[in-house]
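B., you asked whether I could sanity-check this one before it goes into the benchmark set. Here's the sequence:
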Amino acid sequence: MWTEPVYRDLLAVERGKLDVDSFRQRYMHRKAILVLDITGFTETGMELGEIQSFLRILNIHKLCDPVLRSHDATLVRAFADDLVALFDDPNSALNAAFAIHDRVELLKSSRHDLLVAPCCIGVGYGDVFAIGPNLAMGNEMNQASKLGEDTATAGETLLTANAYRGVRERADVHFAPINDVLPFSYVRATASASMI
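And here's what the prediction gave me:
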């Protein structure tokens, strides 16, 4: 999961040969994180078969990749029915999320088939460790993943508190704080009609 230097440095931290601050300086960077989950993956596999569920993933990958790259994603990684993208700026991540939802809706309305799947998106922003396959391990990654994979509903974009602070001045977005049982606060972001 980690590279050999990361393992070596973590072992050095564990043994007291490398201090935590040095480890942070070596691996930490500030990123916006977009975590996308495709809805209905399990149900599609059970109802239509595994290949059909794979085709749903393929369609979303084909749709999302150019959108993410056009919004300056610095990393795009797929795993099962999830996509993770990193950005330098939370506004780019939020714009990409809205663009993905819009393109999914457009494609669904033109094709009318089950191979176009709505997406759930979580966005985080902050200091994360550039280790692991997503180059974004830490609290912001965990929270963005929780929002995108487990909390958001189809077509919804949820922001961590840090991501919200990075974009809250935008007049073209409606923000609604959500109060529920998660151990951290988050916000629903909806594009205004003028963006759509």
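One thing to flag: The CA atoms of residues 100 and 106 lie 10 Å apart. Otherwise nothing jumped out at me.
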